Amino acid sequence: MAQVVVVGGGFGGLASAARLAKLGHEVTLLERSAQLGGAMTSVSQDGFTWDAGPTSTLLPAVIRDLFRKSGRPVEKEVELVALDLVREHRFEDRSVLRLPGGTRGAQLAAFDELGKGLGQVWVDYVESFNEDWEVLRRGYMEVPWDPSSLSPEAAKALSKRLDSRETLHKRLRRSFRDERLALVAGHPFVAEGHDLRNVPAWAGLRAYLEQRFDAWTVPGGMAGLTVALEQRLATRRVTVLKDTPALDLVLREGRVAAVATAMGEIAADVVVVAVDPRRLPALASYVERTMPAIPPVITHLGLEGDLPDLPHEVVLHGDPLLILRTGGQAPDGGAAWTLQGRGRLAEDMLRALARHKIDVRDNVVTRLDLSPRDLVDTWGGSPMGVLWQGRSTVRHRLGPTTPVPGVYAAGAHAAPGTGLPFVGLSASLVAQAIGPA
Questions:
Q1: Helix (H, G, I), strand (E, B), or coil: what is residue 350?
Q2: Which of 8, 16, 312, 364 has the fewest CB atoms lying closer than 10 Å?
Q3: What are phi and psi of 273, to 5 degrees?
Q4: What's the half-sphere exposure (Cβ side, CA atoms, 13 Å) at 177?
Q5: Other CB atoms closer than 10 Å to residue 175's CB: what's the count?
Q6: In the structure, what pLDDT confidence band is assigned to residue 150 with cuts at 50, 70 and 90?
Q7: Axis-axis angle for helices 179-191, 118-127 (nearest 10)
Q8: pLDDT digits (tens, 9 = 90+) for 388-413
Q9: 45: which strand partners?
Q10: How many angstroms separate the Cα of 270 from the Cα of each of 17, 396, 435?
Q11: Is 29 helix (H, G, I), strand (E, B) or coil?
Q12: Which of the 8 DSSP states describes residue 140?
């Protein structure tokens, strides 16, 4: 049995702690704030409640595997529901795409409604990621990256993806003549603050994951997953120390020996860093060639009165790019919306929204505006993870192992993408790398 200290109580830290405790380790989790969950929490004001971060997830198998490998199945703890509609896209020419997930045929029909023949163009694009997914899943995302453990053919196929100079920008320009399809494929990365000219082409497989596995949510808010995981940690007898920021790692004889806190040192045989490594001086030099992706501008809205009937997520293309999410919790007769913005935000968010013919300025009961700095200060870092700066970003970030013996990395900064699926996979990789007690 190893003494494991997990730094960070976001989804990556919670998942790592739960898995390692089930493997028989003695686990202590440190969280700088008064609550667990990081971006997977809720925000409340004047009777309205909004998801602080993600409102849905891809790859539900990642969450199911986490709960199964740490105790009871997820179905006995929290409800996961597939969304009939992944999102609605509205373009500057006033055309609209209602994008379903889960089936090739449904997406083909949806894009054909956008324009004759566009359905086949889209499904051919998505299908182009089938081999990318299989190669990356088997050699990189579901097992710790170790080319020496792969067959020569598998190692070559993996290297072909990770070392490719092709960017997502180039693939989209090659794949689509209709700019709207390129906007749909590229929007998740733009929404996270990336420049498509710096994103590797293989990262575009998110469109493949949406089509093959659908998007899923938790009724009542994604914070329900945090509640369930906190209960799982209690079941697994994980020691949880809130309001306890980690100051640095303590190294002795070349390996980690403890985590320094304001209360003193907490001894550790193994440390899992599930926060931005820049926060820990012992690791900062190893990630100096990477940058964090900056969170968006967010406005949470409490509304009342007559409102347009909108799906759970609407993407309003243009500059600025606006993403409207409608699934918050509100008092009777009200609605809780969240608006995210990227790009040239030189005006009030609601005025920008009104230019898209969604004018709710007279319906506002309460609003909460959060800048990128506010979000970073609240969460102690960016939940967007590492900014894509070309193909080398994969090798410059940390995770699941690090150059410091006994130190591992999980979370958004240790994953090849943001969101619960990639963060959850990073925790699985850490558990595999550390192994059972």
A1: helix
A2: 364
A3: -95, 110
A4: 6
A5: 17
A6: confident
A7: 40
A8: 999 999 989 999 999 999 999 999 99
A9: 48
A10: 12, 22, 11
A11: strand
A12: I
Structure tokens at 147: 């080319």
Q: Do residues 316 and 356 touch, judged by C-beta distance below 8 A?
A: yes
β-pair type (239-241, 81-82) = unpaired
Residue spans of beta strands (DSSP E) within 230-327 = 239-241, 246-252, 255-261, 264-267, 270-273, 297-304, 313-316, 321-325
The token pair that represents 332 in the structure block: 């009777």
* DSSP secondary structure code for residue 1 in this structure: -
Cis preceding linkage at 296, omega within 30: no
Give the C-alpha distances (Å, rounded to integers) separating 159 from 26, 140, 387: 37, 10, 21
Report d(CA 55, CA 329) in Å as an integer. Answer: 12
Pick from 337, 394, 392, 385: which is nearest to 361 by CA?
337
Q: Give the span between the Cα atoms of 352 and 366, in whole angstroms.
A: 18
- Dihedral over alpha carbons 187, 193, 197, 203 (to 10 degrees): -60
Residue type, 325: R
Chain centroid, CA 232 distance in Å: 21
